Amino acid sequence: MADHPVLERFSPAVRAWFASSFPEPTPPQVHGWPHIVDGRHTLICAPTGSGKTLTAFMTSIDRLCTPQPHVAPLDPKRRPRVLYISPLRALAFDIEKNLRAPLMGIALAAERLGMPYVEPYVAMRTGDTSAKDRQALIRKPPDLLITTPESLYLMLTSSARDTLVNVDTVIIDEIHAMAATKRGAHLMLSLERLEEITARPPQRIGLSATQRPLEEVAHFLGGHTAEGGLRPVTIVDAGIRKPLQIDVVIPVEDMGNLAGSGADVRSADLRSGPEMPSSPPHSSIWPSIYPRVLAQILEHRTTIIFTNSRRQAERLAAKLNELATDEGVRGPEGAPIELVKAHHGSLAREQRVVIEDELKRGVLRGIVATSSLELGIDMGAVDLVIQVESPGAVSRGLQRIGRAGHSVGEPSKGTLYPKHRGDLLEAAIVTRRMIEGQIESTRFLRNPLDVLAQQIVAHTAISGDTS
Fold this sequence. Notes:
Blueprint: H1 12-21, H2 27-37, E1 41-45, H3 52-65, E2 82-85, H4 89-98, H5 100-113, E3 122-125, H6 131-139, E4 144-147, H7 149-156, E5 169-172, H8 176-179, H9 182-197, E6 203-208, H10 214-222, E7 233-237, E8 244-248, H11 286-299, E9 303-306, H12 310-326, E10 340-343, H13 349-360, E11 366-369, E12 384-388, H14 394-401, E13 412-417, H15 421-436, H16 449-460
Parallel strand pairs: 1-6, 1-7, 2-4, 2-5, 3-4, 5-6, 8-13, 9-11, 9-12, 10-11, 12-13
């Protein structure tokens, strides 16, 4: 589909790479690229697995890879032109890794076509970046910098801000995760400070699968000009509802009478605090959930199990591995295997990367996660998502269940296990609204003066900066 009209404004090498990699552009790409190429501030709303990230990056990659002889070369110390801002360090790491394939593919396509090609330098700065590496990024800045809101704030309050003067594009991924929070307000103030030091106002591109109303999120993304008017933001609503296959499973006959439903009458496995010897035994639904979840894991190649707390994730992973061992689940050589591992924000980045890689390679059959995997981290081909306890919000449920079938046109398959009757009612309502696409409304904060005060202090402290 290299002759698709929407691709005509890209360079021949980029068109050739895209045509060899994808059957055709997706709706967010068809409707989003013309506005992004024209330099408009753009908000993209599209379901998980629809190519949103490439929609945002394609124009920037093309400009960085294609030599522009009529443009004066940039100062090597002020090289960054594109900022990608992620709400999660893990997502930032994933984007950095996944950019390698298109850059290599475009380079090979340019070589085949005999076209000139410039290899962009991509780097990442997050809270995991060492002081030595941060100094290296100041000495040799990248063309495309992947960062987080907090790291951008620190850069603007240090000598690293001088490297950002030629930034012309800012991509904010999963914008819904920050729009209604003080963290989002803090980021928007950082963008205003960035605009004060750049040679020209950067183009803003926002991405999300779950954001409503779009006009409110567009207002948040664009912000206000120095004169007080709103920056115009083009809204690309490609939020066609993705096919969902969701089951709400009750693993007992009567949730109001666990003892009479065959559930174990003993202390609940995931209760907090010690049990007093004289206290009566408690009925727990967990012993009925474990075998059902284990059976589903064994029926699928790759499964993500979401819980609502890190403590539950750790304990559920341990219980599932213990039950798998008791039931004789073995590896290829007959040895006991670790079927699943817990994945959450308290783990070091190195551990998270190893766990994610083990899931992608099939070493693990599943991951028990919290919100650390809720956003757009590439976990490869995920067959099933299991949610233990109601996700608590329609948008959160869509983000989590959407991790399954993470490719264009493929339905997302999920199972919800409510823990008690009140949880069942909430899970049923959330599931129905997920299927109908009735996402909660977002409203960004107005006049968060404490955030403003923090940014003012940082701005006035710049003269005493030590990076």
